[in-house]
Amino acid sequence: MSFSNQISNSEIFHALHSEEDLDQLMEKIGDKKYVLLGEASHGTHEYYTWRAQISKKLIEEKGFSFIAVEGDWPDCFAINKWIKGKTEGEISEVLHEFKRWPTWMWANWEIAAFATWLKAHNDHLPYAEKVGFYGLDVYSLWESMEIIVNYLEKEDPETADLAKNALTCFEPYKAKDSYGSIFERSKPGCKEEVVKLLKQVRERAHQYDNEPEADLNAEINSLVMANAEKYYTAMADLGEKTWNIRDRHMMETLNSLINYHGKDKKVIVWEHNTHIGDARATDMRHSGLFNIGQLVREEKGVEDTFLLGFGSYEGSVIAGSRWGAPMRRMMVPEGIPGSFENEMHEFTKEDSLFFFDEPKAQEIFSERIGHRAIGVVYHPERESGNYVPSHMPKRYDGFIFIDKTTALHPLKLEPEGALTPETYPFGI
Fold first, then answer.
1. DSSP 208-261
2. Which CATH class is domain 1-137+266-428?
3. pLDDT tens digit string along 29-76?
4. What domain of life is recorded for the organism (predicted)?
5. Among residues 178, 175, 172, 202, which one has the least CA distance to residue 190?
6. 14-15 vs 267-270, strand pairing mode
7. What is the CA radius of gyration of the chain?
8. Over the stretch 152-174, which tens digit does the pLDDT of each residue have?
9. Per-domain residue ranges for the chain?
10. 201: helix, coil or strand?
């Protein structure tokens, strides 16, 4: 496939150099309530900064209420409390609490800058109108267990007993075992304990009003415990797809946030392209896999959802050579011939924004094409394996192409505690 000689530069591509160049994106989004912003890696400066700039405009111009990200609930809730003025200190202190590998994914200066803007935006607003920042992921099992036990001991001793029973199930394996083996050999009845806990917390959540959003915090930490059981049991016995369990958890968490804030509220989601780009437009569907982009379209409606992908031709990225390895700056090679990234470079050679609903774009991008995805584990020398065959107009509504990217700026943290193993397909 080659479309570089089929269209003029002005037909579908819009130069992207400043905030003003995002106005066309705002027009395309219109009154949609669910805007999902992707990234082609978890370690690229431009993806973070453009997502932040887009989010600012969505918040200021269209009244979006919160941002939900591909991060652990407890860590992101600490950011949420800071930007809403409930904790003191500097944002760098909050981000230093992100200690699970890959630490750089959220503990970076780009997030620090955006969180600082959010705090300034929120400072003059009533608490109920402050923009939130929440994590959707399922990995924070131990942290969520400890938070829920400590909180319920003060607020709901009866339910706290359920939480302690659930914690006791897994505690013997905390120090010595990986997540993958915890549920394989945990005590009988653990699943029943965490499900009973989740049910009781949800029934009593309205009583937890000791501090703002305490009920929400209790519910989501309990949800993490329940779905972590499913996720790591599946990993241990090679049962149900762990990818599907994880993305279903993220969708369930997103729905809990929507229900909590009100179904009329508008939501921004930050996740990797592999999560927000509709899985049905890739080979994932042939393996029975779905993702949050597909689920949002199905549950909330295509007409109310906007999926924005990101990608680049070459540059640098922060990643690790294996799970748990020290982070390092790696060079991203030029997009391989015939790939979406290579075709984009051949045509534009500049940063661009474009939309797949435009008739010419539908025509030009009608064929499936390899589209690069870089995970937290990355091997540039195996570049051909990093491409996902995709039908781009079905996968995204719009796309931001950065011709040459630069690496993210981490806070230089070392990971602590148990490491979470890689998940299909790129450790994303």
1. --SSTTHHHHHHHHHHHHHHHHHHHHHHHHT-S-HHHHHHHHHHHHHHHHHHHH
2. alpha beta
3. 999 999 999 999 999 999 999 999 999 999 999 999 999 999 988 889
4. Bacteria
5. 172
6. unpaired
7. 21
8. 676 677 777 776 766 666 555 45
9. 1-137+266-428, 138-244
10. helix
